[in-house]
Write a structure and sequence with these properties.
By secondary structure, the protein is mostly helical. Helices cover 78% and strands 4% of the residues. The longest helix has 26 residues.
Length: 169
């Protein structure tokens, strides 16, 4: 059964809006990164791209193995490709937020709490989507595993930024 989003994205208007919004958000992120005197911002975009690549690989591997199933997989290639642009932008801004938060007094505590919130929201969202048939898990894959994967996606994105930065320092 299609989710309301998937139904919308299957329409000509919906796919056009999804693709257009993804391109605008991604272009805005690239514009932000390209500001003069801010070469470090490109490393943030690269980190977002690495996180997105991680997600794409997870979808290919776990989707092919039958562990992840989603009606989203049946969307057009153009819409699925636009998800890559949108996800890269969102993970870029997540790393930007992480960097901002880390410089705050309670940044480490808040970061940990936010990762916990990501896990909880993933579990709640999965239960909702599973109950409605929007997604399915197979091969022993469980909701708690998906919550761990969601946290790992954010950690991979941050590490993709931090590890090279710390090596240069």
């Amino acid at each position: 059964m299609d989710s309301p989003f998937t139904e919308f994205a299957r329409t000509t208007l919906g796919s056009g809006l999804v693709i257009g919004a993804s391109v605008v958000v991604f272009a805005g992120t690239l514009f932000w990164a390209g500001q003069r005197g801010r070469a470090d911002r490109w490393r943030l975009v690269v980190a977002g791209g690495i996180g997105t690549t991680f997600i794409a690989l997870l979808n290919v591997v776990l989707g092919s193995a039958g562990m992840w199933r989603s009606t989203d997989y049946t969307l057009s290639v153009a819409v699925l490709g636009s998800f890559l642009l949108f996800t890269t932008a969102m993970l870029t801004w997540t790393v930007v937020f992480y960097r901002w938060l880390w410089r705050r007094r309670s940044g480490r505590i808040v970061s940990g709490l936010l990762l916990g919130l990501v896990a909880v929201l993933t579990a709640v969202g999965d239960e909702f989507a599973l109950a409605r048939g929007y997604i399915a898990f197979g091969g022993g894959y469980a909701v708690w595993m998906d919550a761990v994967v969601a946290v790992a996606i954010f950690i991979v994105s941050v590490l993709a930024y931090e590890l090279p930065r710390r090596r240069r320092a």
